[in-house]
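Researcher: Structure for this, please.
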Amino acid sequence: MYSYRDPQLNDTLGVYSNIYQFLQSYQLNKENQKNLIISSIGSMDQHLLPSQVGTFNLDLYLQNISLQQRQSTRDQIFQLSQAKINRFAKYLSNFGSIGVESIFTNSTQNLPKSRQYKAISL
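Model: Predicted structure, token format:
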């Protein structure tokens, strides 16, 4: 997970470290399942202007992403279930204990004081 030019960095890092708790208590029903699927597919298959199609396909080529891989991702999105959300929450809960927070910055003035992280000054 990442955040870009975040004025509330400490709050954001707190949300990231506790997101697994939200997912553990999240109850998937048909309505929000439908909304999650639609928004996921919508972000994956955005409408492109003719001038954007070439750049999009070049990006796929440079990232070595095939049409079959994109379809496989779509298929996985359509198979969203409560069990998968619970497994992802468990994964995220483990990630917090082994993850590394890195902050790339040009100033160390406003960095959070109460967190352990690696700051890289640019």
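Researcher: Any notable elements?
Model: The chain has one domain: 9-121. The radius of gyration is 18 Å.
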